[in-house]
Amino acid sequence: MTDLPHPEPPLWVRFLARLISARAFATGLAILAMGFFFCFHLPRLENRPDVDDFIVEKDPDHLLAKQMEDVFSRDDFFLIVFQAPDVFAAPVLSMIKSISDAVENLEDVRDVVSLTHVNDMVGTGDDFVVDRFIGSVPSDPAALRSLKERALANPLFLKNIISTDGDTTAIAVYVPNQMGERRAALMREIRDILAPWKAQGWEFHLAGWPVTNVALVEAMDADMKKFFPISFVLVLATTWWIFRNGRLLLLAGLSVTLTVASTLGLAAFLKLPLNNASAAVIPIVLALATADLTHLFSHLDIRLVRGGDRRAALRAVLEQILFPCLLTSVNTAIGFASLMWNRVPAIRDFGGLAAAGMFFEFLFTFGLAAPLLLVFKPETVYRDERHVERAIPRFVRFVHHAVFRSPGRILALCLSLLALGSWASGRLLVDTDLTKYFWPSHPNRQAMVFVRENLTGINTLEISFRSPDNNTFRDPAQLRRIEEIQKRALSVPGVDTGFSVVDYLKEMNKSFHNEDPGRYRLPETRAKVDQFLLLYGADDLDEYVTPGWNWTRIRLRLVKNGSHESKLVIEEVKKKIADVLDPAVDTRVVGGALDLAKTAHVLVTDQVHRDRAGRIHV
Asked: 428-438 pLDDT, tens per residue?
């Protein structure tokens, strides 16, 4: 081994090195006590990979969407979808009714819409009657055929609760928007309800954001239980491969374990639940804790042990590496901490926990692992000449000599790689697609694909219309404007379905005129609108319009799930409807698809571009 001169360490570094080596017991005990304090809070750690954690905070469009969730009676929902050779066979309809009744009686369910739990209008001359589409399930084949014909002719049913070919049907379950842990409990109750039917061979597909949220929690729990032990074993195996020393392996395992546990314990102490972003802190902290330990262990040179003085040897080691390791940890922590100003809560939590992890890994490396070195005889932990013949030191020497022999070539190679990386980064596409959070074989992903291909998309987009005056949207002129906007939005590729109060009024008009298909259009006068609404009387319209008729919406579903594809669809929708908007009406495009597109934009640029109203433009 070659003796290399070391610069004189700063005074504060010599002080810390002397303190740690001379007061090893007190230092280790203090750091251990700190670790136990945070570990004590570990049982309170929660997992919450909630979609809302990935939404840009304080964005007016998102705040409006949240307000709409409270105003309109039906908002957050998921679908129970299945196929049958004949959906309108009596046993199948009885099953739908049985499942719908059971789900409707669950505590956390606001409403259920299915073939047996949906209202229908039936014309009776110059009148119409609103009643359940299927009250009791008929057994007469002719009555069942009539139900099928009526369902497939009703635009309010198509691609909403029944596919256009009549082979796939859905039970739409509406739930509160903020459910927390109750969401997982509800999914278990739903599965229990479906279990007897699944035992008979029926296959159900559950899709929607509430289902995805629960699936993310379950997947993250399973991954952490699987990959954390694997990562931990790999870290220890690497340490063993490099140093081949059981005592150093023990110290590394203790330090790494306490570093990860304290970081997660801090999250529990601060009541920060883990999400899909902040869970990445675990492998990062594992890796960086191992890096500092490797620095420490690699400087344990037996030549530093003079006259058997363990403390002097440890002090000499610490004087060499404390400053560079501290500088590296601080710089890394600052880099992660910069994410704490990110506008996406999940990224902000990740940045804060990762920065704290750098703090913990430095403390446990030099405040616990280093003092514990004094427990062992120097000749059992400090390396000698034999170490230089192992694979890692030989490889390091090879790289060292290669750089000194051909610095120009090495520099040219690095610059070429930098240029290639810069070029490739310009082609980077950030796409937030929750579908792809799961493996193709995962039931949740398969369910989303099945529902999209056989019924409708589940990614939602809303066009909100709000007026300062009550009854604005009873005006036929305003209704025709909404109808035109809905028609244009549906013409955009990627928009699958769209429903609004316009569809209900057109269906009322048709039913009022004895089910004449030619009358499937909006009423011509305000008086007719008022008359129809008086006759209708059901609460279905609460999903689309407020009681004062000054706020209404079009609900669109997209077949595109990715944020990049959704962004293109949203831009095209806005472009299509721009020239028909009423300046007196506040018209906004909001919803889950827009939230994801904005999140992807902020993740790339960490910037937002707002208009005068404060809305973010993607």
From this structure: 666 667 777 78
